[in-house]
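Table 4 source record.
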Amino acid sequence: MLNSKIGALVLWETILDTQINQTTVINLRRTDYINDNVDQQWSDIAVFGTPALLSTPP
């Protein structure tokens, strides 16, 4: 009985470690999608004017 409990705990720990590793890899891939390799600043698009909020009547 003790042996099966130890085996279950080792299996549980392995599953948790695998899940943590997979989550880390998935999160890194997601951040790759949202981060551009281009360094862009507002001065790059100044041709279109300074960004401003527009208020519209209700």
